[in-house]
Structures are given as C-alpha cells and as structure tokens.
Amino acid sequence: MDVPVIELSGVVKSFGPVEVLKGVNLRAYAGKVTALVGDNGAGKSTLVKGLAGVQPYDSGEVRFAGEVVHLHTPREAAALGIEVVYQDLALCENLDIVQNMFLGREETSAGTLDEGVMERQASETLQSLSVRTVKSVRQKVSSLSGGQRQTVAIARSVLKNAKVVILDEPTAALGVAQTEQVLHLVRRLADSGVAVIIISHNLADVFAVADYISVLYLGQMVADLETKNTNNDDVVGYITGSKTYEGTLA
Amino acid sequence: MSTPVSPPPVIGSGYEGGIGDQVVNYFRRVRQGEMGALPALGGFVVLIILFSFLSGNFFTPLNLANLLTQTATLMTLAMALVFVILLGEIDLSAGVTSGVTASVFVVLVHNIQMNWILALLIAFAVGMLIGTFIGFFVARVGIPSFVVTLGLFLAIPGLQLLIIGTGGAYRIETPEISAIMNKNLPIVTGWVLLAVAIVIDILISVWDRARRRRAGVLNRPLTLMWARIGALAVGGALFVALMSVDRAAGRGSLNGVPIAHDAIEGVPIVVPIAVGLLWAGTFILDRTRYGRHLYAVGGNPEAARRAGIKVAGIKMSAFIVCSTLAVVAGLFDASRIGVVTASSGSQIVLSGVAAAVVGGVSLFGGRGRLIHAAIGALVIAVISNGLGLLGLPAGVNFLVTGGVLILAATVDAISRKRSGATLLR
Fold first, then answer.
1. Fewer CB within a 10 Å sphere, N or C end of chain A?
2. H helix and E strand count, chain A
3. How many other CB atoms are found less than 10 A from the CB of residue A206?
4. What is the pLDDT of residue A244?
5. Which of A91, A112, A149 to substitute to test the interface with B, most B CBs within 10 Å?
6. B292 touches chain A (CB under 8 A)
7. ipTM, 2 decimals?
8. Residue-range domain boundaries for chain B
9. pLDDT level of residue B419 (50, 70, 90 thresholds)
10. Does A185 touch chain B (CB under 8 A)?
11. B115 CB near a chain A CB, below 8 Å?
12. DSSP-based three-state secondary structure for B328
C-alpha cells in the first residue's frame, strides 16, 4: 500500500492527570476518506486539535508523507497543507463567499485587495468541486443555507492546495438533502487526491462516504476497518466497547 | 448527431450581464435587505425638499454652507465611531476625547505660546494614547468597551476641567484652525479640487477594471462606471457652483442701494477636509486587508481568529483610529465655536452614535460603511437646521431626532427580517 499522507503513531495527550489519548495510531491516505468514529469523550476532538496544531500532542510521532514533522502551531499545520473544517462553521456571515474563502490570506496587488484574482480562484475551486448549489460567489454568507455554508467552508479548506482535510461533524446540523450534497462533496474532495479525515456520529454517513473506519474508544484506537469488510453492528460494537477487534491495528 | 453535453456548472459573480441585469440585481439585493444607506439617503432628500417648501431660507447658499459647517463635527465623530461600531464595540468617550484634546491644543498654544503645529501633534498624540488605553483594556484585559469608555466618559471631563480651569474658556487664536470652519476656498480652488477628485476617481475605476480583466473575471458595463462618475461630476459641479455665489449679497440695503460688504463665496474649507477623511477611510475599509479583517472581526471574531487574524490587534487599532479621528472632530468644533471650555465635547457622542445608526450602521457589528455615518450626520443636522429655521423650539428638535433614530432602527430591523438573517445578531 502507498505511504500514508498522515501517520500518527503512539500519540499521547493529557490534560493534567487525565490522559485523553493513550498512544493512538492513525493513518490517512491520499484520495481516501478515513472516518474517525467514537463515542463522546473518546478523544476525537483532541486528536484533531493536535493535527491542526491547536493543541500539540505531548508525545508520539507524526509523519507527513513519510517524514517526521512537528505540529506545534496552526501555522505549521497549514504550511504542510493540513486544513480543518470545524463543526461550528468558521465563516463570517457579513462577508461574501469570496471574502470568506480568502479570509486571512487575501490576495493583494499594489497594497490593495485584488478582488479579481480572488474571485476567479474562488469560482475555480467551487467548480472543481462541481458545486452547483451556489448562484453567485459574491453572495453574502448570511443568505446561504446550512449546506451551502458547509460547502463554502470545505471549499475554503482546499483553496490553497490542501493535502489533508479534516472535517469535524460536517453533516451534524444539516437536513437530508443537504447532507447528501455535502457527502458528495466529501467524495469529490477525496477523488481529487486529498486525504480526507471525517469525524462523524452518524454511521449512515460514514458508511456512505468512508473508505476506512478508525474507531477510538476511551483514548485508544480499538479498530481499523475497511468499510467494505464491515457492517453497522460491528462498528457500533467497537464504539461502545462491547466487541473486541481481532485484526491488526495501524 | 452527437448527444448534447451539459455545460460545466458556471457560478456567477453578479458582474455579468448588461445594464438591465445590473439594475435588476441591485433591486434584488435591496429587496433581500441589503439596503445600505438607501433609507437614510431617501430621508435626507425628503427632508431637503420638505424644508425647502416650508422655509424660503432653507435652500439658500448661505444656509447650505452653514449646514455643512454644522454637520462637519458630527460627521467626523460619527465616522470615527464607525470603526469601533463595526467591531460591535462602542466608544462613549469619543466626545470627551475630542473636548480634552482640543483643550490640550488650545492651552499649549495659549499659555506657553507653543508652535501650533507642534501643539496639534501633541493633541493627536493624546488622542492616540486614549485610544490605546481603551484598546488595551478592551482587547487585552477583556473589559466590555461600554464599561471602559463609560469610565473615561466620566473621568476625562475631570482632566479637561483641570486643564482648562473652572469656568475657563480659551479663544481659538490660531488663524489656521479658525479658518477650517470660518473661511472659504477661493472659487477657482473649489473647481480645481473637484476636477482633481473626478480625475482620481476615473483613474482608480479604470485601473480596477484593468486589474479585473487581467485576472480573467468580468467587469460591470462600462456605461455604469461613466454614469456613476457623471453623477458625481454633476452633483459636485452643482454644489461648487452654488457655493460660488456671494452668500453675503442681498442681506442689507439702504434706500434700495446694497450696502458694501465683503463677499462670502467659495466652498467652506472644512468640506474638502471632511470629504478627504471620508474617502481615505472608505479606501482603507474597502480595499485593504486591514479593512477586510475589521469587518471579519465584527462579523465573527472566532472565525477571524481561526483564519489567522490577530483579533486583539485589530480591536486595539480600531479604538486608536476612533480616538484619533475624535481629535479632528474636536478641532472642527473648536474652530466653529471659536472657544474651548471645560465642557467642550461633553454632549456630542451619543449624537454621533445616532448618526451612524440612522445612516444604516449596525450596532451589532460587521455591517456599515463610513458614507452611512456621513449621511446619517447630514440627516440629523438637516433636522435641527430646518426646524430651527421654522422657528420651532429646541424641544421639538430633540423629539424629532429621537423619533428618526427609532424609525431608522425599525427600517433596519424589518429589512433584516426580510433578508432572513437572524435578528439576534
């Protein structure tokens, strides 16, 4: 198998006396969707925050495309092409789609904002993801539906050649049709060569979109599954700790 | 025969189509609640027409020039406040800051005969210091700006009283400062400045279009650009022509023979200064990363932080800009009144907030532009000017101004309800 784009081994993170991650291993491959599932308190968010550089891990090894890297700040993560789309969408409602996609990394020329270049890149990115639900890239985010906002947030993450995109509960607040749209978008994202890690409580979504499923249970990775070789009941079993994994862990 | 292939999805930008499409787009945006300054502008025009009918003295060059000098202080203060209101913050001390810095200026010039330019720089430094103080306590310590600036609103008049002395009043004797409100540009200079402004506008518009074309995205129809610039040119020319009439003529005659007088003509000096501030501030807010980040922090501070924007720094800077512009407002006020007293600037700040809100700036942050504050200030000034000309008591003026503020807020709330945005924000 290929070298994983991101490979965590033996990652440990504690908050005071509470050990949240107890030596976790995780792999994500380019062009594949890896679902990270687990019950509340399993350590999913902590794992993601470490990858984003927001809360660095205490120990353990992070390899990016085979090389050992350090993720101590969000900037280091972003420089490698690791982008996180958070659950509570980090968009400004008062700005339009282009402005949101380029927020904090605006293109300028002659010291002023180069709206033309930003507008074209934003359109191209949205079109490359086959987004059809957005009428105009100059729409204010306040006028968009939840699904459209999630679309903008995801498009924002891939704007600057992201290698790894981590989606935190991307469908949690969406209706049925919008969930469908976002899952299609996630699939296209992976098909374009990005390694996608998706966190979700909704196993139907996970089975619809993921290639691999990694189950976290009380700070430990308890199962590494290929979606096609497992089923809903087994995954629920691993999540709740009522079933023990027999295979090899990453 | 080949099967028809569906074209790739094309996402619009609102720039495509002819003039008709652009007009339709514009009205759609207005219907969706993005009214901007439209209600205030409408109100302004209605008020001008109304007062012109009610009072023969309203639409005269003399009164219009007066109106502008009456507005300039409020307008500058309202524009200053926009920077902090955009962040969802407030600066209740902007008025007293304008008063205390004017006091610093006049006392330095008067008591120790300091060079007026040096005194001016010190006044600006004091303003920036006050802004830094507010910004530090709001952005770094985390106290609500309402509380910090309320504290300063109570404290700074004390400082002013100590500087000026009880019952003290200092005349503005610096000719350059008095000239701002009391002198006019030579007629030729007015026309030249208008021409320069139009040329700059054309150059920037053409450059914008070229830059968009280079990037490979659409421009709006060229006709629209010329229509906008043409409107600006016509409006500006009408204004300068009106200001070129001798405003002192016909004010008195003896046995049918006009009394000899010095002509009052030309654009008041404060007008190009205020317009320059408006233009520069708008440029910064619309066209620089700093301006974009200001709107972002006002819209969603958490999103701004995750996008790598230094939220605390943006907040600090907004308070510094606000206090610095308040110094300008203080100088305008001192120039118009001619004296600085211990109570200068103590009354005006809430009118400044009102002007911004009437113009369409949202107190919740993230929405509004400087031109909104300028138009709001004009509306408030026209009300007080017009009602004064009609001989109505000052009480009526306050009642009407307050009513207009509530009306403006209602229009804003209803328009946002229609736009579907949550009213809580």
1. N
2. 8, 12
3. 21
4. 80
5. A112
6. yes
7. 0.88
8. 36-183+268-412
9. low
10. no
11. no
12. helix
